[in-house]
Amino acid sequence: MYKIVSIPGDGIGPEVVAGAVSVLEQLSKKHCFEIEIEEHPFGGASYDLHGEMLTLATLEACKNCDAVLLGAVGGPKWEKLPHEHKPEAALLKIRKELELFANLRPAKVYDALLGASSLKADVVRGTDFLVFRELTGGIYFGHPRGFDENKGWNTMVYERYEVERIARLAFEAARKRDKKVISIDKANVLEVSQFWRNVVHEVHKDFPDIVLSDMYVDNAAMQIVRNPKQFDVIVTSNLFGDILSDIAGMITGSLGMLPSASIGKKHALYEPIHGSAPDIAGQNKANPIATIASVAMMFDYSFSLPGIATEIYQAIEATLASGLRTADIANPGENTVSTTVMTEAIVRHLGA
Ligand code: IPM
Ligand code: MG
């Protein structure tokens, strides 16, 4: 039995999570395993109910399950709240509390969507890399931090164990892929980055079968749009990974397609890369694929059932090949389908 906590959140979150839940239910019928899905409020939805974006009850539920499925948080209604009450703060808190130190963001191009990329089809065709972003350290969490009238400050700091554990995961992932890791830093300027680089190379000694190279972050941003096919596994710090994963996301066409996994030693959380898209919320227009693909990552990483992950990816590909498009991935003038129609088609392609 798998116990999953779902936190649909705000905006399109509930719609895309509903799509992912239908996929989970279909898989549970098809493969005869039991799934228990418990829903909890998070983000603005939770703030409106309890005056807090992340309640202790939701946090405890997330700590006591096999995997968390998150939709999206935030929206204009809660934008003016003080910093510590903002949805972003709740997201950082849940990452820290669950110790989700590794954020995995695959950038994989679906052939059916080559036309949707803002880059030339020849440049993006065949792109398939995986970003390992460190998620619970670096400048996002360093102290001292603050601002007053005349200055603002944050601290970028990494402890050895923090670099070691993310590097190790990246090398292990590369073993199952093309055996190439590129570590991205700013070691020509930042001491913390020189330290990062040194530690990654020390960990590399345990992985002689993997080719490791280093790249400065500014060059990496350029290389990702110049020739994305050169990358296999990228490992990088929290802030650089935040920026690079958005760039990487866009080469595949739509953020509406991209899943992510945030994993730690004990817990794991799966969510689409896109946000809550308040402008289309409640209209049955959102693309559910990123959240459904996040369920595929859940089967792969949390349940060690890569075969089922593959089934989900294949159902997504077959649905796209049949021509169905939500608005975000449609070419101008093309017919579009709703969230529920897209979901039902994927469920049908999964088979019984
Ligand atoms: C992301 C987002 C978050 C981040 C924000 C919303 C806090 O941009 O998950 O990439 O910066 O980590
Ligand atoms: Mg981001």
Give an account of the 3D structure.
The protein has about 350 residues and is α/β, with parallel strands linked by helices. The protein folds into two domains: about 1-100 and about 265-350, Isopropylmalate Dehydrogenase (3-Layer(aba) Sandwich); about 110-255, Isopropylmalate Dehydrogenase (3-Layer(aba) Sandwich), CATH 3.40.718.10. About 40% of the residues lie in helices and about 20% in strands. The protein is built from twelve helices and twelve strands. It has helices at about 15-30, 45-50, 55-65, 85-95, 120-125, 160-175, 190-205, 215-225, 240-250, 290-300, 305-320, 340-350, and strands at about 1-10, 35-40, 65-70, 100-110, 130-135, 145, 150-155, 180-185, 210-215, 235, 260-265, 270. Strands 2-1-3-12-11-4-5-10-8-9 form a ten-stranded mixed beta sheet, sandwiched between helices. Strand 8 (about 180-185), helix 7 (about 190-205) and strand 9 (about 210-215) form a beta-alpha-beta unit. The longest helix has 19 residues, at about 15-30. The radius of gyration is 20 Å and the shape is globular. The model has no long low-confidence stretch (mean pLDDT about 95). 3-isopropylmalic acid binds near residues 88, 91 and 242. Magnesium ion binds next to helix 9.
